[in-house]
Specification:
Elements lengths: L1 H56 L6 H16 L3 H22 L3 H5 L1 H36 L3 H7 L13 H4 L15
Helix pairs in contact: 1-2, 1-5, 2-3
């Protein structure tokens, strides 16, 4: 009788180990899939940027510094590896694109060019998709990390290799700063 109880306990323990292991595998694969979805959107973004730069280059001849910064930021983003490095490079690219869009506002010819507006709209749409993908990725990372860290799952995660702690896709320090808006009205005095 005691043998059957011991055997039942061992079987239940093994079933628990298998179920916990499979759940961790499933969560890890979901995190990896979410990262690949971000990567797909980033690739689309990287493909659109040279087209936009080429389209505005002639009209923005005095803004070559801005265009060079966009091209440089894109190159860094394309060559970056790992979640943290890629996040930093992509945040820098987002900032330089924002500056490019702001400078483009000073050129009425660009605002009336259908191709440029279409490229800008595609980039904006892609940015939104990237944002949603990052949110999903971070949600899945949170779920995965919780499952890894709660007791007794932490035992399984530490015994079996391959369950490393995933990093969140974080905003850069510059993205966290609150912009200062000057709403004061200044009167100009003419003499």
């Amino acid at each position: 009788m005691i043998g059957w109880i011991l055997l039942g306990t061992v079987i239940l323990f093994l079933m628990w180990v298998i179920i916990t292991y499979n759940n961790l595998i499933s969560l890890r694969n979901n995190v990896q899939n979410a990262w690949k979805q971000i990567d797909v959107q980033l690739k689309r973004r990287h493909d659109l940027i040279p087209n936009l730069v080429s389209a505005v280059k002639g009209a923005m001849e005095f803004e070559q510094d801005t265009l060079e910064k966009v091209i440089s930021a894109r190159a860094k983003a394309v060559s970056s590896v790992g979640a943290q490095e890629k996040a930093g490079a992509e945040n820098m690219l987002t900032q330089t694109l924002g500056k490019l869009f702001a400078v483009m506002e000073n050129y009425p010819d660009l605002k009336s060019n259908v191709n440029i507006m279409q490229l800008q709209e595609e980039l904006t749409s892609t940015e939104n998709k990237i944002s949603f993908s990052r949110q999903l990725f971070n949600d899945l990372v949170a779920n995965y990390r919780i499952r890894q860290e709660v007791f007794p799952n932490t035992i399984i995660a530490s015994v079996f290799s391959g369950f490393r702690k995933e990093e969140y896709f974080e905003a850069s320090a510059a993205d966290r700063t609150v912009p200062i808006v000057d709403t004061s009205i200044r009167k100009s005095h003419t003499c």
